[in-house]
Amino acid sequence: MVTRPDIAELERPALEAALAERGRARFHAGQIFRWIYRRGITDPEAMTDLSRELRETLAVDFRWTTPTLVHRERSVDGTEKFLLRFDDGRTVESVFIPDTPSMTFCISTQVGCAMACAFCLTGKMGLVRNLTAGEIVGQVRVLAGALHMRDTAFNIVLMGMGEPLHNYDETMKALRILADEQGFDLPPRRVTLSTVGLLPALERLAAEPVMPNLAISLHAPTDVQRGALVPINKKYGVAEIIAACKRFPLKKRSRITFEYVLLAGVNDSPEDAHRLAKLLGGMKAKVNLIPLNAAAGIPFERPSDAAIDRFAKIVADHGIVVSVRKSRGRDIRAACGQLIVEGQKKSAGQQLATLAFR
Ligand code: SAH
Questions:
Q1: Under a CB-based contact definition with an 8 Å cutoff, are residues 219 and 183 in contact?
Q2: What pLDDT, on a 0 to 100 scale, did the predictor assign at position 332?
Q3: What residues does ligand 1 touch, defined as CB less than 6 Å away?
Q4: Is the pTM of this model over 0.90?
Q5: For this structure, is 240 an active site residue?
């Protein structure tokens, strides 16, 4: 059986090659990209600037997969959470965060996550599977359509479910598809990739032509503390990650963001703040403090506002740019570390019956 390529999974050069193999002109790939990514059209019949024969070829020889929007929920603060289902029945959550000050899509790269960070609900699921590039971009296509934002600029943060550098190739391919000037034309500077710091992948990222902004989930200034929160730290420790960040090629004016989830009595002391500032001293760094979003099953507490302010002030007094992430969408469990979809280990059929959208 000849497989029908899924156009959602093809970068434009690959679509050009697939067209050429079928005796069609390569430049049609650009037209097709404009239909899919700019206008949200995936039915070849509706692609009116293509010849009847080409439309026929597309319908017969290719597939077009788009995630199904299963559920959509809106927070009092305007944040919206989307539950999307893929062809095999697996689901992820994607989040729209308005006015931060830009419009931001928080996109998932895996179903579940293998990193098992002690304070993250997604980590409790374990890794179910990687997403494909088409599924990662598919989330953006669905959100842009559902929110009527195809003509509006938006940013993307790879801070949904999953560890992007643990699904390196598909994540990078997705960024190239998103950046294609015939498609979304999303400049890489509008994308932020957040990672626990998988060193070999971080080194690869440093050599990429399409380079997103980098955010490192640091969460603690010492190996003892970080190892208890982020299990992979036992393999790639704080000093190694910082050294890799110092080598990371940065554009003028750009900085690496260090995310730091604040946990009461665990990593929020003044000493921790001083240590963090010293660790990052001399780097082009900024610190993003994320007060814990507490949840049942997460054995930590959010520090008091006074403790958060004290921590931020110490870091700032060392001359480091620091911000405190405002929690968005907590009422609909769309905030950082709260994305979880139940029942994913079950078969797709069972899953539909038990799927609890929390
Ligand atoms: N795996 C990637 C990206 C996903 S998480 C990473 O770890 O960076 C995005 C951010 O949310 C990370 O900094 C993560 O540590 C943080 N986070 C996870 N659980 C959280 C929680 N319960 N409260 C606040 N932030 C949390």
A1: no
A2: 81
A3: 115, 117, 119-120, 159, 163, 194-196, 217, 259, 261, 290, 292-293, 298, 336-337
A4: yes
A5: no
